[in-house]
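Slide 14.
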Amino acid sequence: MVINTNTAAINSSRYLAQSQSMLSKSLQRLSSGSKLIDPSDDAAGFAVSIRFDAQINRTQAAADGVANATSFQQTQDGFLSKVGDALNRMSELSTLALDSTKSDSDRTLYNAEFSKLGTYISDLGTKDFNGVSLFNGTSLNVVTDSDGHTVATTAVNLAASAYTTGTSSTVSTTTAATSALSNIKSAITQLATDRANVGANMSVLNSYGSQLSVLKDNLNAANSRIKDVDVASESTQYARYNILVQAGTAMLSQANSSPQSALRLLG
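Slide 15: predicted structure.
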């Protein structure tokens, strides 16, 4: 029997330290909700999780950009709807000016409203969305994924000749009204094409937005399997380590007291 080196106490102390370490880590996992407290828990999983986190953030940023582009298109369509109302009224005024029972004085009155509507349409062509022109004929390059790939939307240009020719026409005479009616009909045809293109833009952007939403959900699910703690399983482990710490403490106490039996031999 030896008293200088208490092997049982040394071993008990080592096991107790291990149990205390595991108990502490289990407590951290339960309190944080993450099973990756530090890279040593799962080095490869930790690296994958970091990449997933970055991709999820990029995907969300792309989804935000698609949503903003959709709002841009919706704003465009709202203005184009008003352009359509104005063009419809201008075509009506052109037809009224062709009435043979009307005098040129009457046509001058029609022309006053016709001209103001043309100015209104021209003014709408200067509108912007957060500083980006809505109708200058420049398409948007919208980011559609986390890798920076883009899709170009079809642009609308209210300064196109079909619009400017119509809005600059007059109905002050029968001849002018005949030409104006033809020009306004061309502008309406262009407007129909532009609104169809805007509708197509919104449709494809909605598809990209849905795709990004599904992708983000799947990425979050995959990332969760790597880094999120299973509370039920970890609670079981916590209870186990807690019991081991209590048992280890009791055994260490017993191991430390066992050399006292040597005193009996000295008595």
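Speaker note: The chain has a mean pLDDT of 88.
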